[in-house]
Amino acid sequence: MGVVRFTERHLHHDPPEPAELQRLTAAVREVLDAVLPPRPGVEMLIAVAGTATSAAAIAHDVQPYDPNRIHGSHITAGDLEQILARLAILPNSKRREVRGLHPDRAPTIVAGIVILLETVRAFGLDEIEISEHDILVGAALDQTRGRAGTG
Asked: How many CB atoms sit inside 10 A of residue 81's CB?
């Protein structure tokens, strides 16, 4: 999955139509169902990268962007639902003006929030932690803990 790919495949109107959002959500769930075990048994999710940090900045009204306020913050599924409801009804030109959202992320943030929200739901969790570190930090931690190459 990716925000650009899923935006291009599923969101063809500006703002997206409800049926497009439903198809996008179904496509995200389909991918998650295919790759996740039935009961993942995960206690905590840590989200990285642009959608997650943007969602945190919007949820916590961080403007201008401050990585120190974002790193380690938490967002609930309810926060993500509210952000999605708010952004999905705005045309791209108005999403570009949302506090906490970098204007360049406006075209793909709706798909990103759907992916993030459905991921939280798929793991049966109510919140996620946001990290300013990237996935390579996690890979390095796995390597140092002897978990790399076990899959």
From this structure: 14
Residue 150 lies in a domain: no
The kind and range of the H/E element at 85 are helix 77-88
Best CA proximity match to 4, nearest among 120, 112, 104, 116 = 112
Say which residues have a Cβ less than 8 Å from residue 8's Cβ, sequence separation at least 6.
none
> What total of structural domains would you count in the chain?
1
Supply the range of the domain harboring residue 55: 3-38+46-144
Nearest to 122 by CA among 32, 41, 51: 32
- CATH (domain of 89): 3.30.420.150
Cβ atoms of 56 and 139 closer than 8 Å: no
- State pLDDT tens for residues 94-117: 999 999 999 999 999 999 999 999
